[in-house]
Amino acid sequence: MKKHVLLTLLMLLMLLPVAWAQTQVVSGRVTSAADRAALPGVTVLEKGTSNGVTTGSDGEYNLTVQPNATLVFRFIGMAPQEVPVAGRATVNVQLSPDQQQLSEVVVVGYGTQLKQELTGNIAQISGEEIANIPTPSLETALQGRAAGVYINQGSGKLGQGINIRIRGAASVSASNQPLYVVDGIPVTSSDLGTSNSEPLNPIADINPNDIASIEILKDASAAAIYGSRASNGVVIITTKRGQAGKTNVTFNYYTGFSRPTKIREFLNAEEYIELFSEAIENVGGDPASVFARNGLDINSPYDQNWGEEPFRTGSVSQYEIALSGGNEKTRFYINGNYNTTDGILVGNEFDRASGRFNVDHSISDRVRIGTNVSLIRTLNQRVSDDNAFSNVIQLNALPPIQPKIDPETGELNRKTLYYNNLIDQRDGFNDALTYRTISTAFLEVDVLQNLRFRTEHGIDFLNLQEELYLGRQTQDGGPSGYGYNSQLTSTNYNTNNTFTYNGVFGGEHKLEALLGFSYQRANTSAASVEARGFPSDRFQKIASAARITSGSSSETGYVFASYYTRANYVFRDRYLFSGSVRVDGSSRFGSGNRFGAFPAASAGWILTQEPFLSGSNLFSFLKLRASYGLTGNAEISNFAPLALYSAAAYEELAGLVPASLPSEDLRWEKTKQLDVGLDFGLFNDRITGEVDYYIKNTEDLLLNLPIPGYNGYTIITKNIGKLENKGFEFVLNTQNLVGEFLWSSNFNIAFNRNKVTDLGGNTIFGNSRGLGQIREGEPMGVFWGPKYAGVDPQTGDALYYVQAGSDETTSNYSLAEEQRVGNPNPDFTGGLTNNFSYKGFDLNVLLQFVSGNDIFNMAGFFQSVNGDYFDNQTKDQLNRWQQPGDVTDVPQARYLASNGGGRSSRWVQDGSFLRINNVNLGYRLPATLTDRVGLQSARIYVQATNLATFTDYDGYDPEVNTTYFGRSNVNLGHDFYTPPLAKTFTIGVNIGL
Q: Which are the contacts of 351, defined by CB distance < 8 A and separation ≥ 6?
């Protein structure tokens, strides 16, 4: 028996070379004939068999076939192509489009996919759309370009944190910011600053011109592959890579200036004296003596316009050079960029220098390696918090009868009613200097014909150096100077390891399967020191201080370990199915709840592939899709489940004190989302679009629950409550005119309704000056307070409604019942883009709109109360009640009588706006001219950003969210001396060498 087995094995070994000789391995690369860009997802099939593969993200494939085989290349939107192998080992193919628009390839989690085969909802923005827009951070360039993505800059301060909401807010106490993934690696996107309460924006470190595409994963089917951190959506950023061909060199430059979108008008000296004299007389006082008692001269000869002093004409410049190219073996992309921006606020500047080197190399037909390396340096010269007296916007509170310059000394006036914070800008600084690298390296191996292994390792290393100095004459630094220095290091390491299978069976079945493991470890360490007693303002380093007043150090970190799988199946190019499961483990939760599973499933049906629609003159593409899945939120403090202790000292004795209560049963916040959508193309894709309806239900809210403070604790984190978002999104793309004159449009609009459905009977209150609350049955951050009813025309008294729904009014503020008086969440948001081109000219116009949201201007309490304070007042106070019969909503001016000064809906206004967000007019020089001077291409352009804003809000800017509260989820839509956005004009050039 053993002999028979041995003989059989020997015969098989002898026949193996014969069998091997009858097949061969053929490999190659599939590109677009239009621009030679790689085409991933192309089906490569050995004709007459079910033997096939799909191309990878680099357009490459590897297939074992018969020597006389013919390869069939198929790609939706491209003309199929048949190529005989003829014994060749390499077959490269260029595919040409067979319809007007080339099918898009979309980046998804851990891979790419044809847009036609997507069963989830992903918004895609190309890098060209946001390149050379003069904004420090890429998020602002996305405004109005993606349905369901609401971006609120919140402030005109450079480099500050930005609010992004993808299909509404999904959490109360945990973060509502999306997960950012750069070249496959989750990066640090939360504020790490310590020098003031306003958040820094780490995403501002990324050069927008480095970006090839941005994909925003909105529904559970698309985002669930990122599991525990996908409830708020995922923003995938893919940087540019080189393409095989000649080396291309491009040079980009722009320069320009900026001004505030609006400067508010306040009373001049004559109006100020008139108003406050009247307010004092109305309560029986003597104006001259009351003015003098407050350090004011009623006979002052000065008329200082303090409302303009916080602002200046800003400037912006950017220089960039990029090289890309390579061959079939090695491809590269190199970029160097320098951006410098002087903001519209005095003392506010932002500089960023960045470099990038991306390279891909094919070691063999089966093995590829690559790396993405970026080096970034940013310097943010910051200005003070909104609530600080050193905030330059608060200069508008100073009486116009007090001059900016002291006539006796010739220096900045220190004898003003409130602090003349221009002294801070002269004698102080607050610098945040960041050194950062976001870098990855990968190895990709074709293990088998249809099986690919990829391992990638990335690091996001960030070093933040904050240095603050306030001179001896400043309010907070006097009398001997104050210094603060902080050194922070954040290391975020991530590895992804995936097996991807791509196969085609019988010409009708297409399967892509993914199996992966990811590990992320993040660590942040910081040390800071404060000092006072500097010999002079020329000595600004801590080493020069006489006294170290305090010092501290800290370290924290977290770990995620994740396992995930996904399968995409296509049958007959029309029936689409997808499913994924991710299991995440996080150190942020207790030992019994560290792991959570996040599944998702989706399906689609391409109706235009069916015989009954295949010949339709109306529909060129029609797809129904639906998805349902579970995502999570883990963005809480790193040690929320634990009982924490902190060190305390009494003289030289050290001890421990409890810092937080334990919550050992703390578990994941979960969001279940259903999405139903329709993708369509009409008239040979002259019109394309998407329609989506979704419902997002979040439960087990990670809630910072307020508790009575008598036991030493004020909050505890618990899983309490439920929240719902549901909405509708519509996207429409049209080719309006084709030919020599081209005109295309993109319109998107999104409606979202947010409601807290369960809070365990609790109500979360915001700041006592604000109106924001979180209540069961109401939207997030709903405004709650007394409702202002106007002015009694007979007495000039401010009136308030006694009860909700009642017409009864009272002049007694304490008798007014609190009720719902506003909603900071918009009814709908969207944008409209129009692109025109004629011969060498091109014009792009982007309109952005937000409708139905309310804004509470807290600063109105000081700017329009007719005499409770000596702050300068807004111009509308000239319409005050003065005699019986006057019909106005501005009460009679009464000094210190608080007539209408109570916190109420009086300062709640409609925050809707339509903004001409961006206008770009360019001219591409003809080839006859560029060839003559040795250039490949040249384009000059002029651009305007935030050109005009149409709104009824009378504050600085309707796109506002004060940092007074640290931008919490409770106090949304509040304005408190918050600066406006900048209106910027630039001229630039793009040159191809």
A: 338, 339, 340, 341, 378, 379
The DSSP output letter for 31 is E
Q: b/e per residue, 632-650, with b = 16+ CB within 10 A?
A: bbbbbbeebbbeeeeeeee
Q: How many residues does the chain have?
A: 993
pTM of the model: 0.89
Contact 682, 666 (CB under 8 A): no
Task: With beta carbons less than 8 A apart as the criterion, state whether 981 and 957 touch.
Answer: yes
For residues 422 and 713, give the distance between their C-alpha atoms in angstroms, rounded to a whole number: 40
DSSP character string of 408-440: TTSSB-S-SSS--THHHHHHEEEEEEEEEEEEE
- Is there a contact between 432 and 380 (Cβ–Cβ < 8 Å)? yes
pLDDT at residue 790, as a whole number: 96
SS3 877: helix
Q: Which residue has the tokens 């390839």?
A: 105
Q: Are 584 and 227 in contact (CB under 8 A)?
A: yes
Phi and psi based region of residue 252 (left: phi greater than 0; alpha: psi -120 to 50; beta: remaining) = beta
Q: Which residue has the tokens 């007959």?
A: 572
Distance of CA 183 to the CA centre of its chain: 17
CB-based contact 367:62 (threshold 8 Å): no
Tell me the pLDDT tens digit for each residue of 641-694: 888 888 887 777 888 888 788 888 888 899 999 999 999 999 988 999 999 999
- Amino acid identity at 100: Q
Q: Is 922 helix (H, G, I), strand (E, B) or coil?
A: strand
Q: State the pLDDT at residue 196.
A: 77
What pLDDT sits at residue 1? 38
Nearest Cα residue to 911 out of 953, 961, 944: 953
Alpha helices in 546-681 (DSSP H): 611-614
Measured distance CA(824)–CA(911) in Å, rounded: 8
Strand, helix or coil at 188? coil
Which of 294, 132, 181 is CA-nearest to residue 986?
132
Angle at 856 between CA 170 and CA 260, to 5 degrees: 100
Which pLDDT score is estimated for 966? 56
Q: Which residue matches tokens 């009460």?
A: 891
CB 779 within 8 A of CB 785: no
3-state helix/strand/coil string of 219-287 = CHHHHHHHHHHCCCCEEEEEECCCCCEEEEEEEEEEEEEEEECCCCCECCHHHHHHHHHHHHHCCCCCH
Tokens for 198? 């306003």
Would you tell me how many other CB atoms lie within 10 Å of the CB of residue 47?
16
| Token pair belonging to 461 | 């290393």
397-to-307, 890, 903 alpha-carbon distances in Å: 8, 19, 19
Tally: H helices and E strands in the chain: 10, 52
Question: 37-78, pLDDT tens digit by residue?
Answer: 788 878 888 887 767 888 887 888 888 888 888 898 887 667
Tell me how far apart the alpha carbons of residues 467 and 611 are, in angstroms, rounded to a whole number: 69
Strands 24-32 and 93-95, bridge-based pairing: parallel
pLDDT for the residue numbered 9: 36
Buried/exposed 910-947: b ≥16 CB within 10 Å, e otherwise: ebbbbbbbbbbebebbeeeebeeeeeeebbebebbbbb
Which pLDDT score, from 0 to 100, does residue 965 have?
61
Reported as type and span, the H/E element at residue 335 is strand 330-342
Position 64 scores a pLDDT of 87
Distances (CA, A) of 58 to 105, 235, 689: 12, 21, 28
User: What are φ and ψ of residue 885, in 5° steps?
Assistant: 100, -15
Residue with tokens 């007979």: 794
Give the side-chain half-sphere CA count within 13 A for 884.
2
pLDDT of residue 666: 87
Distance CA 719, CA 703 (A): 6
Nearest residue to 58 via CA among 335, 367, 355: 367
Regions of the chain short of the pLDDT cut 50: 1-21, 99-102
